[in-house]
Amino acid sequence: MWRIAVACLSLLAAAPSQAQELIRLARIADIPDQYVGGEMLRAVYARLGIKLEFEDVPGKRALVLSSAGEVDGEIQRIGTLSRDYPTLVQVTPAINYIEPAVFTTKLHFDVAGWNSIRGYSIGIVRGVGSSEAGTRGMAEVTATTSLESMVKMLDADRFELMVTDLFSGLVAVRKLNLQARIYPLSPPLERIHVYHYLHERHRDLVPKVGKVIAQMEASGELATLREALVKQVLSAP
């Protein structure tokens, strides 16, 4: 797992000196944008004197744990999550954004939204809500257990293209040394704002976290931190 750079931590204000409360969040394993969102939230919670820990699990398992209250919430999910998981309370404003993108080994076309991939065989990661929602109703969709397994399946021609967050896909392809074979198409399918969620037992914490997110967004600190984290992950050996 990537480690946050000391330079990024310098962006944070000093946390209060009293003993810290602990919040445990589900984090989808081996998804780089989840790492970035988690470290952004670590900065937010530090302002409240709260320590974060993460439980790395597959996407569907994360929702089982968080909605049941076995962990305290989710790092970042699409904005409609509470509709299907009413025990998870959305924190506003958005903490981050993702850009679902098409990766392929052979195809060349200009991407024009989700409908432009409808006629292809597609790989997605099970439990990633943006990919599941965007490909819903399409004929040939394979849900894989992890991002890395999906990249390997695309390399093996198990489907014609895969969909994942652009940043996460670039990291995974490079990790497997497949940059010469697998490439993204442009532009991304869309930009989606993603939100932090807390289990309903922490409902009183929601406005406090939201207020800090809004303050750090207005000051530009969140954008600066995100940029530094993305650069860090993309340049890691």
Can you put this structure into words, describing what you see?
Keywords: Signal. This is ABC transporter substrate-binding protein. Residues 1-19 form the signal peptide. The protein is α/β, with parallel strands linked by helices and 237 residues long. The chain folds into two domains: 22-97 and 192-235, D-Maltodextrin-Binding Protein, domain 2 (3-Layer(aba) Sandwich), CATH 3.40.190.10; 100-185, 3-Layer(aba) Sandwich (D-Maltodextrin-Binding Protein, domain 2), CATH 3.40.190. The protein contains nine helices and ten strands. The strands form two sheets. It has a five-stranded mixed β-sheet, with helices on both faces. α2 (32-46) packs antiparallel against α9 (221-235). The longest helix has 15 residues, at 32-46. The N and C termini lie close together (12 Å). Residues 3-18 have low confidence and may be disordered.
